[in-house]
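Backbone shape codes:
***
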Amino acid sequence: MAAYLQQRNAEIFLRKKVRRLIYQTVQDKLQVIGMEIAEEARGNAPGKIIHADGVVVACDVRGIQRLLPQELRKFPELDGIFRLETVPVITVQLRFDGWVTELDRNKVAFRGIDNLLYSADADFSCFADLALTSPETYYKPGEGSLLQLVITPGDKYMRCNNENLKCVWSSVVKLGHSLYKEAPNCDVWRPKQETPISRLFLAGSYTSQDYIDSMEGAVKSGRLAAEVVSKRIPINRNKDI
């Protein structure tokens, strides 16, 4: 994807914090015209101003809450974002010397389930064997499953034990504020991808779409945002991105 964009003269800025949105009033209506990004990771040095025909803000709940200025909360569609609460999430990775998701261990050719799996009535909401779902990155010859489990809410911990397998490596990442809390009636506060601010669009799994706060929801929100952008902003395919 990066190569595709760069071939079309797009610029990609990594590890650059977005400091603020830049907007103006045009015919009594607010319109976003760009953003300011930090040139340095730390410090208060002047940032780089990027002008844009449209801005798609794709982040999590806490990210959009920090970025939206107080002035824009006068719009109910945006003020509702601040009513969304977050829950802690723990991501656990476990490397084993065998295949955890193997259905029939007598079948040598079948190594496990190549899919994202969901659990019912358990602390970990979903899990996957990364060595199978993303072998280009996580498969290592001579080693087994790299199981990744997402525990949410993360206020509990889970022990993973299997008598036939040995855990040879593990990693735990804790996020204090991650997914939005799926409390009763909270869906009404999830914003649409199109905002009342001209040229400002939202993406992220917390936004209004068919799925919960998840990878699938993030992809769905991105597609919905792209559809809105293509309708609201004329695209000149002969112009550099």
